[in-house]
Amino acid sequence: MRHLFAIILSSCEVTYPHKLWLDNLNSICEDILYKKQKKINNFDYILDDEIKQRALQEIENILQSNNKSLKMFPEFNFIYSNDYVNSEDIYDIDTQRKKFEDNVVTLTNEQNQVFEHIVKEVNNDSIESKMFFIDGFGGSGKTYFYETVLPALRSQGEQAIAVASSGIASLLLDGGRTAHYRFKIPLKCNKETTCDIKLNSKLANLIKNTKLFIWDEAPMADKYVYETVDRSFRDIMKQVNSDLEKIPFGGKIMVFGGDFRQILPIVKHGNRSSIVSQCINRSFLWQYMKKYKFTINKRLQMDESNRKDEKIEFSKYILRVGEGKEKNYPEIGNDMIKLPNDICVPLTNTADLINKVY
């Protein structure tokens, strides 16, 4: 309904747009009102200006994507609010609670230990560093763990933000965005750069109000990216308490995760040592992080197919390669390994490969 209304405003010549709004107000705002009623557990709560403004904010977002704005229609009395905060406040509490309750009982002992430590820090108001790093190979349940922590906080009405170093990884997280998009990180970071966040902006207020941040695929990003975000967070949080300027990320709870066996930061024309030196574990922030390892292949635990044994063997092979433990063949070349026969395709032409893969 809101999308249709925005299209009508932007594409049609409506004689009385405000009357159209009033005539359909209940339908346009119905779901927003219902979510509000559930959140405060009061189904007698009626349509008010807050609900109307939220609906208008969504309509404004759609209009802006078409280079239009509610400023063209002053009769709506639209108040420009903090849409960053609103975007993190749309989660249905009952849905989040059920998701958390379903997930938490299936956590491994490793995951549960980290979860309890994070919850402890959430309830800890002391001014100190609250940073975690979860090191786990692909399939060890990092994303599943994030999808337990996020609804745990959101079901309590708290704000929790999920970001990732890559776009694909961000899509796997509920409400996930790339870190560069969410924090306005410059494309080139160094020892002095900061994020493009004004101290009293909507984004700054969102950061102040957020309880926990999750950052997936952390080893992919340059250490200067994290130090840039760190400087910006300290600047923002010192407005709340001047002592927070001395604490990494302004005292915010930061949960980083990833696998150092996978893609590391890209250094233009860089050699092995220069790439390693730009990793997050070469940053001064690394010393403040509490490190945990996920060692159980949760993905294989849940696999009930008849090829499970084959997948387990392949998973072990990938880990050996990633850890540099697979047998190499120096007579062929430096750091050369042999691929197992079962993953090789005898080729006579390109068509053979295409037929095998697809």
Structure characterization notes:
The chain is α/β, with parallel strands linked by helices and 358 residues long. The chain folds into three domains: 2-81, no CATH class; 93-295, P-loop containing nucleotide triphosphate hydrolases (Rossmann fold), CATH 3.40.50; 303-357, no CATH class. Helices cover 44% and strands 9% of the residues. It has 16 helices and six strands. Helix 1 crosses helix 4 and helix 6 (93-104) crosses helix 8 (142-154). The longest helix has 16 residues, at 25-40. The mean pLDDT is 88.
Supply database-style keywords.
single chain; 358 residues; alpha/beta; Rossmann fold; 3 domains; six-stranded parallel beta sheet
Which helices and strands, and how do they pair?
Elements (H helix, E strand, L loop, with lengths): L1 H10 L5 H7 L1 H16 L8 H16 L18 H5 L5 H12 L4 H14 L8 E6 L5 H13 L4 E6 L2 H5 L5 E2 H5 L18 H8 E7 L6 H15 L15 E6 L13 H6 L11 E6 L3 H4 L6 H15 L27 H8 L1
Parallel strand pairs: 1-5, 1-6, 2-3, 2-4, 4-5
Helix pairs in contact: 1-4, 3-4, 6-8
